[in-house]
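Tokens as discussed.
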């Protein structure tokens, strides 16, 4: 089997990429699956704690960060929190929409110093840096007609980016739309996470697909995406089905 034939699936339904070592690290609500060139569990765990503590400090000093469903104004030196605040304003959602992606990105960017081939999944939100193509199976739930049918190629370009999912029916994240899966590929995991939430929120029925895709096409940081709702699916941008 060629390396690009290995499949990566959301929500813990993974098949290990053949050239990488798999390990997991957990701290409080964050539960990461990591694929790297070697076992970096201890380092990843320390990084995860630091990332979580930074977010917890922000929440303690700014409770609206956790509770607001709209963008907030917040001054901070933390680059990940700054990105969350900036992108959530652009997407018109609350800052918590970007936390899972931020954790994956925070840990991932630091681990790149130890492993150039790196995939980190945090509850359906992925930070990836790879020199080879990877294949991602889109998981839309056990009842979806698209179950186990949609696979996309993630191009290996030696640049980190994010692939994140939001769903009304899967996972624990707050979602005001009705999509079975909204998958966004973006320049960063933070942007992918926030816009996956924002775009999923826009889709209440299949009639909303066209306008929502048009909106997503106008967001510069978004490279592509897929929206699945009931028996319909819409895709745009840098999406290559395999």
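Sequence:
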């Amino acid at each position: 089997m060629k390396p690009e034939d290995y499949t990566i699936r959301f929500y813990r339904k993974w098949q290990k990429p053949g050239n990488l070592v798999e390990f997991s690290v957990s701290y409080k609500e964050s539960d990461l699956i990591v694929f790297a060139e070697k076992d970096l569990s201890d380092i990843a765990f320390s990084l995860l704690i630091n990332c979580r503590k930074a977010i917890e400090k922000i929440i303690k000093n700014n409770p609206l960060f956790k509770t607001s469903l709209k963008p907030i104004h917040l001054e901070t030196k933390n680059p990940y929190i700054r990105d969350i605040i900036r992108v959530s304003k652009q997407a018109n959602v609350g800052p918590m929409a970007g936390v899972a992606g931020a954790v994956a990105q925070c840990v991932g960017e630091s681990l790149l110093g130890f492993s150039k081939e790196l995939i980190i999944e945090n509850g359906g939100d992925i930070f990836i840096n790879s020199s080879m193509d990877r294949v991602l199976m889109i998981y839309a739930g056990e009842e979806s007609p698209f179950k186990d049918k949609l696979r996309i190629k993630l191009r290996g370009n030696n640049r980190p980016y994010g692939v994140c999912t939001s769903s009304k029916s899967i996972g624990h994240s707050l979602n005001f739309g009705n999509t079975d899966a909204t998958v966004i590929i973006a320049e960063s995991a933070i942007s992918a996470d926030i816009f996956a939430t924002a775009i999923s929120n826009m889709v209440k029925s299949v009639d909303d697909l066209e306008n929502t895709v048009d909106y997503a096409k106008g967001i510069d940081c978004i490279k592509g995406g897929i929206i699945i709702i009931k028996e319909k699916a819409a895709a745009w941008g840098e999406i290559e089905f395999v």
